[in-house]
Amino acid sequence: MKTMTVFEARNHFAKTIEAAKEDVVIVTRNGRPVAAIRAIDDDDIEDLLLERSERFWDMIARARRGKPIAIETLRKQVAGRRPAPRRTARPRRTAT
User: Fold this and answer.
1) DSSP code of 81?
2) How, if at all, do strands 25-29 and 2-5 pair?
3) Superfamily classification of domain 1-75
4) How does residue 87 score in pLDDT terms, banded at 50, 70 and 90?
5) How far apart are CA 41 and CA 19, in angstroms?
6) What is the CA radius of gyration of the chain?
7) Which pTM does this prediction carry?
8) Cα 66 vs. chain centroid, distance in angstroms?
9) What are φ and ψ of residue 63, in 5° steps?
């Protein structure tokens, strides 16, 4: 873990981002931590957004309060549904 002051992090932002690729960077002001910077990639962005989403956690809480369903019952329900028929494109007529 690397520690930087707000001044250092702001004035050397590219260096701060590079350091965050290796490990979490703790940013301090007057010797006290005020932020943590860590690198993320495309795979992490959805997890990061969901873990901070109040709406998502409300949905999880509602689902956990719901009545459990047996896997066999679920399979029967899903098997009973038929997918909507696909529309196929008609062959185009060519001018003769």
Assistant:
1) -
2) parallel
3) YefM-like domain (3.40.1620.10)
4) low
5) 15
6) 26
7) 0.55
8) 24
9) -65, -40
